[in-house]
What we know:
CATH topology: Rossmann fold
Helix content: 40-55%
Protein name: Nucleoside-diphosphate-sugar epimerase
Shape: globular
Domain NAD-dependent epimerase/dehydratase: 1-225
CATH class: Alpha Beta
InterPro entries: Epimerase_deHydtase, NAD(P)-bd_dom_sf, NAD(P)-dependent_oxidoreduct
Radius of gyration: 19 Å
CATH superfamily: NAD(P)-binding Rossmann-like Domain
Structural class: alpha/beta
GO cellular component, one term: cytoplasm
GO molecular function, one term: aldehyde dehydrogenase (NAD+) activity
Distance between the termini: 23 Å
CATH architecture: 3-Layer(aba) Sandwich
Largest sheet: 4 strands, parallel
Amino acid sequence: MGASGFLGSHVTRQLVARGDDVRVLLRRTSSTRGIDDLDVERHYGDIVDDGAVRSAMADRDVVFYCVVDTRAMLADPAPLFSTNVDGLRRVLDHAVDADLDRFVFLSTICTIAVSPDGTPVTEADPFTLADRCGAYVRTRLAAEDLVLDAVEGRGLPGVVMCVSNTYGPGDWQPTPHGEVVARAAAGRMRFYARGAAAEVVGIEDAAAALLLAAEHGRPGERYIVSESYMSLREILCTAAQETGARPPSVAVPMAMLYAGAYAGSALKAMLPKKVTPYLDVVRLLDLTSPADHTKAERELGWHPSPTSEAIRRAARFYVSAGVPATR
């Protein structure tokens, strides 16, 4: 489920490559460029279509749930809750009855704690940003709770994969973080946020981690799927250098971004469904810390490659495919 998305398409590709019998659930309106060349069984429907979901899960051993609305900049967060929480809740009702071996759930690094002193965090560290995380992260926290509650109380063989920012070829949409890299690869990024950094991982490695979770993941466990911690400047310069583009050179202080975001907060309070939550976005850039993926290495046998290589492949893909100019 979610096979038309960036990570979902790569999971699908790897399953097909190893010879698995793959069925995908798609909306008829979804762009399927990432999987059109694959021999998969297609079922059509939405995650709120109970009949389609039951049919898609019938006789399957594993469900990879890669459905997520990542639009953290939506002025009205209602669609985020509708997809990321309410839609998932309905799918879980059917998954519990489907006699699955595993339900591999795509979550996000944003649900992992942020270290107060810069030391790497793990899956066991308690989340500490509940009052500052924004609507998108709240939906992802709620989604994880739904999955873990279904594991504990209803016997779902669910595994939660906390995946960081993914980079690599095939990002046709593109993803929000991918679009920034696409612009850098095209020489259209002049500014970057000073001090911004993020956990990152190559898309092929992230997909491989989900496949490994289906085989070795322990139900009820969370796994950090991230290779390294990179500054935004390093990410953008890596992309620009790969294509020979001019790298971004103007550093915008984080304090300036916060000032602009707070200035818009009063307007956001008056028009909550009309004004972009810039403060949430700035916090996503700022409130990060290194993460330790040792658990995924130890329990899943996951060994990622340097993400810088995936960023270079992404840069070449964006330029050759005309992304995001073709959107």
